[in-house]
Amino acid sequence: MRFAIYYLVPSKKTCGVIYNEGVAVLSALIKAKGDEVSFFRLDLDDFKRGVNIDFNADVHAISFASQQFSLARRLLNILKMRAKGIVIAGGVHATVARESIIALDGVDAVVSGEGEPFINWLLANSEKPLSTCDIKNTHISGTGARPLERADYVDINKLPFPDRTIFDKSLLRRAPEFVLSRGCPFSCSYCVNEFYNREFGFKIRKKTPSYCIEEFDSTFSNIDIEQSKIITFHDDDFLTNIKWLEEFGDSYRKSFRNPFRCNASAVLVTEEKVRLLKEMNCEEVWVGIECGDENYRRNALKKNVSDKKIYRAFELLKKYGLRGVSFNIYGLPGETWSGIYKTVQINRKAKVYLASATAFIPFPGTSLYESVKADGTLKHFTEEEDNKGLNTPGVSNTLSKQECINAITLLNASVNLRNTLLYWFYIFYFRMPFIIKRELVGFIPILKKLDNPHAIDFDRSEKK
User: Fold this and answer.
1) β-strand 177-178 against 231-233: which pairing, if any?
2) pTM score, two decimals?
3) 440 contacts 429 by C-beta, under 8 angstroms
């Protein structure tokens, strides 16, 4: 059979989404059976220019997140008119909002959750009609409604190594990406893992250290390891299992010394784990703060992490010479400038190396999505806004679009400033009308001379 895989992404110009473990594994499964794969990584600009599609493929598989739903509808309309093969929809949106996909014309199968069971069935039963498919997490068009179910857990250590050849090798060479586990122990109200844990049950599966090392060897035989500045491990939380971390660390140190970065929850950061990370040549750890108001963080975001735990986590990272990068969300439901100041202040007090800020996006399937939908404040984005990915502001029901932009810029501008005068200047600067900011912007270079010359600059668009 001939497969065409379509991976829909936010703007390639502004978003760093390159690698996708799910589609890479599916491609590997298909090729392992001797079948062909054509791969298309598409954003809105591609559709405006005119997409290049393999209309003669036997199977068209589309993977996309909720923000690319509008692009998926475009692609489905094109395939419905001209494609010959069957059409399968999968990915995050097909999991958390599958009814919205089932309702569309031109979709033959909707896979919710892991796609390997259905692809294996399809490869083994290519002569049978789709209506005979009995995979639990797959809805077949025309077979009637069925409840959402989880397919049997996939043994990720029996899967072929992900097929990275389908991606742009020059992009992967800059920072190779790996996913060494599946599952997250937390169910934060803004994250789709809340949906997965609620509907499919919680279970973390990790690749064995030996499997990981073999995957690295396979990957770096095709990518020049010397040109790789840093490896990225995209596991939801890299520190969930200290026994695995010790075993993996031993194997990694013996075979590789490439620096890497990973994700970790503040509640799982301990001195023993940070020491292990240091010995493995970890250089950077991304930790979610999300919101500076501890009460809001615990109750509204369902992120049960205290300020004390956050400060301790970044203190340990700094102690062992690891860069601590924070994740933060602005424009959360009900958030005011008081909350924004708290987020800025906790980042400053934690002495983070870098603060990453994104606008709140209500993802379908999450508690916060249902909350803003129920109170009538759910906003729908245009295709252009969705194409910006997590940089789309304007969802907040208490802050304007410009205030959300100012909040993100404020965090990036002020979090690492040492000079108190400049810090408070920024605080007031971003609350001022543009006409006043235009007059005061000339004082910034003077004040910055008093501060750390390496401090992160504010948004240069303000100078225009």
Assistant:
1) parallel
2) 0.88
3) yes
